């Protein structure tokens, strides 16, 4: 009797040999001519295969802290086949892109990343993440950035729209709810293809603080933050849950209030620590989470600043709401009934956003 042998090469399991014996009274003989058991393609490989067909292109405008983080997450997660990093500062996007490209052999990703100051190299992008503009320093509010960033967003949007007329725009620059409105007006793109990033980040902060309070995995915490990206944001307590259990059953009201408050000031807390700028790692990741859902038609349900036309009783502003993000951008806004307090909080968000939008002069 020669037992079956199993040996593995890099990609498969090889089985060969002869085995004989008895099953009960019955003599049996198994002859295995060498054959290979190939593994199921990993999810990552399947995604790359889909992307190969589509030849996806993602541009990140602004090679500062958030833009660099977004580009890094994008290549690492194989979000697109080609990532282009753009900035006004000569050499900055080229140097950063080259540095990131050199981590590919170590990390094992295959996407291409290039840096440029020339928007013609962004032509035909499917998604453009816009992070260009000033960031907060201690003592500054997001509104303090408005004047200068409006000019930057107008300039960037014109260039992006010229070379990528079919792209989805994800605006990250603050104050986000007014900047996304600016990009919407200047680009002339349909509302489905202009989206602001804030809710994914704010919800991630909310989930993190809940997880820390309960000493549980953050990935088991589900929570939603709606409204403006500012002090009036609305971390929904009623809908937050941990492994399916309502948060209100697990933590006392006072502790939940403190978490809500910390979430609303989550950006300022980081600015106070850093002193020279604002958060960038998770903001970059959050924008890539959105981009990936569009590029790979994942239909993720994510909190995003979307243009509202009557949803939640709100009209004519961008505001953070739960949306379905797919190949067409915002495919649906998921509307649900709010209670009196939630509605009041959302209305104060709307007032604050309208003040910001007025200040843009658009
Ligand atoms: N929406 C959010 O949740 C969120 C989170 C964090 C940061 N932000 C915002 O993102 C923006 C960027 O933050 P950061 O920390 O990366 O700032 P940063 O100063 O590190 O980088 C900004 C980059 O933009 C570039 N830039 C300026 N004008 C440009 C133009 N016309 N075209 C191309 N590039 C241009 C600058 O050269 C710089 O490299 C800020 O407005 C910040 O407030 C938003």
> Which CATH class of the largest domain applies here?
Alpha Beta
Number of strands: 17
Please state the second-level CATH architecture of the largest domain: Alpha-Beta Complex
- Morphology call: globular
**CATH homologous superfamily title of the largest domain:** Lactate dehydrogenase/glycoside hydrolase, family 4, C-terminal
| Number of continuous helical runs | 11
Give the helix proportion (percent range).
Answer: 25-40%
Number of domains: 3
The distinct bound ligands, ions and cofactors come out as: nicotinamide-adenine-dinucleotide
Task: Kindly report the CATH topology of the largest domain.
Answer: L-2-Hydroxyisocaproate Dehydrogenase, Chain A, domain 2
Strand order of the largest sheet: 6-5-4-7-8-9
SSE sequence, one letter per element: EEEHEHEHHEEHEHEHEEEEEHHHEEEH
The major pleated sheet works out as: 6 strands, parallel
User: Structural class, judged by helices and strands?
Assistant: alpha/beta
Can you tell me the residue ranges where pLDDT is under 50 for at least 5 consecutive residues?
Answer: 1-16, 32-53
Strand content: 25-35%
The gyration radius over C-alpha positions equals 25 Å
- pLDDT averaged residue by residue: 88
What's the end-to-end separation, in Å?
84 Å
């Amino acid at each position: 009797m020669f037992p079956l042998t199993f040996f593995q090469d890099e990609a498969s399991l090889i089985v060969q040999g002869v085995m004989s014996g008895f099953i009960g009274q019955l003599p049996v003989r198994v002859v295995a001519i060498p054959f290979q058991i190939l593994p199921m393609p990993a999810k990552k490989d399947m995604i790359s295969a889909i992307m190969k067909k589509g030849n996806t292109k993602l541009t990140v405008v602004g090679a500062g802290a958030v833009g660099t983080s977004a580009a890094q997450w994008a290549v690492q997660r194989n979000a697109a086949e080609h990532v282009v990093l753009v900035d006004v500062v000569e050499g900055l996007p080229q140097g950063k892109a080259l540095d990131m490209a050199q981590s590919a052999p170590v990390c094992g990703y295959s996407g291409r990343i290039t840096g440029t100051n020339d928007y013609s190299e962004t032509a035909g992008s499917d998604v453009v993440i816009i992070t260009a503009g000033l960031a907060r320093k201690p003592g500054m509010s997001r509104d303090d950035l408005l004047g200068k960033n409006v000019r930057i967003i107008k300039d960037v949007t014109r260039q992006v729209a010229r070379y990528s007329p079919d792209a989805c725009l994800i605006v990250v620059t603050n104050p986000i709810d007014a900047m996304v409105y600016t990009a919407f007006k200047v680009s002339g793109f349909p509302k489905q293809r202009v989206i602001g990033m804030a809710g994914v980040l704010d919800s991630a902060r909310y989930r993190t603080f809940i997880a820390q309070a309960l000493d549980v995995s953050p990935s088991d915490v589900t929570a939603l933050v709606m409204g403006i990206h500012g002090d009036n944001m609305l971390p929904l307590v009623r809908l937050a849950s941990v492994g399916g259990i309502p948060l209100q059953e697990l933590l006392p009201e006072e502790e939940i209030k403190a978490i809500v408050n910390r979430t609303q000031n989550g950006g300022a807390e980081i600015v106070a620590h850093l002193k020279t700028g604002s958060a960038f790692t998770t903001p970059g990741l959050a924008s890539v989470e959105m981009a990936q859902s569009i590029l790979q038609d994942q239909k993720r349900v994510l909190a995003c600043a979307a243009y509202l036309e009557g949803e939640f009783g709100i009209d004519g502003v961008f505001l953070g709401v739960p949306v379905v993000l797919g190949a067409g951008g915002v495919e649906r806004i998921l509307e649900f009934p709010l209670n009196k307090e939630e509605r009041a909080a959302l209305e104060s968000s709307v007032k604050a956003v309208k003040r910001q939008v007025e200040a843009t002069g658009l």
